[in-house]
Amino acid sequence: MIEVKLYTKPDCHLCESVESVIHEAAKTHQFRLISVNILDDPAAYTLYQYEIPVVFLDGREIARHRLDRQEFEQALIRASSCYNTNG
After folding, report:
1. Strand, helix or coil at 48?
2. Cα 12 from Cα 32, distance rounded (Å)
């Protein structure tokens, strides 16, 4: 299954916007969402304290700060086709 990882933290308006895009896409695409609160993960905090939200799709960074829904859905479709082709 496709994995989407969102690096976020509480009270982050950009994070809330990106999370909304992800939840909207989840209505029509299957993937597993993992949210990482950087305040609970020292390594993630060091990497992303000034960069959140950061979105990874199957281990590859696809967005920082903002996430365009159409681009995200296209990335999900491409990832899905890889799973369908390769098992």
Report:
1. helix
2. 22
pTM given for the model: 0.92
Would you say 65 and 51 are in contact if contact means Cβ atoms under 8 Å apart?
A: yes
Ordered by where they begin, the domains of the chain are 3-86 (3.40.30.10)
Neighbouring residues of 31: CB distance < 8 A, sequence distance ≥ 6? 1, 2, 3, 4, 25, 76, 79
Partners of 63 in the β-ladder: 55
Instruction: Write out the two tokens for 64.
Output: 């920082």
pLDDT tens-digit map of 15-38:
999 999 999 999 999 999 999 999
Q: What is the pLDDT of residue 86?
A: 52
